[in-house]
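Bit of a strange request maybe. I'm writing a small parser for structure token strings and I need a real example to test against, not something I typed by hand. Could someone generate the tokens for this chain?
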Amino acid sequence: YAIPRFHFLRRLLLVHGAWNHDRSVKVILYSFYKNICLYIIELWFAIFSAWSGQTIFERWTIGLFNVIFTAFPPIVLGLFDRPVAADQMMRYPSLYHSFQKRSFSIPRFMLWIGMALVHSLSLFFLSYGFLQTQVVWGNGQTGGWLMLGNSAYSFVVATVCLKALLECDSWTWPVVLASIGHGLDNDDIMDVLAGIVVHTMCYVNMGSRH
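Reply from user aminoacidic:
Good idea to test on real output. This should exercise your parser:
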């Protein structure tokens, strides 16, 4: 850092140093969490599909997971989260050492990994339980694996966005909008894209029959 005066160094270390350290740790752990929570569902689905190699998610949903659907929560978490107010950090310098104890460690990393595994397992069986009867349409048609995958995907997106909100120590408008608002908008976007994919598949199947 380039600072004009040495008395700026105290605020740079005690406030911004502690904030950036805590934000970096949260973003790293959250990035591992949200990806494991999604992709491990493929493992649970493989067990039920007799290891057929069929993927539960559409390719476009996998590609857009980190690009669109869960892009903003880690960015906002790393920019706007403030564990402690700046004046409190300056008044009680001992808080700086408490943030060092919350640093990135193997036990904390394994805790997040275990939490992601539990969440992925719960979300998969939640979707599987909702579609246990298979008939989901009013005309008697079944949903199939595509409906199962889209349901599980929607649950994952909503869960990981809310998880980012719960990990924030300070709820500001950018954090709330990126977590709750972004999750709700993603459901609408996914419904539109899923509808386009489903209708396209129907037309392709009808054309192949003729």
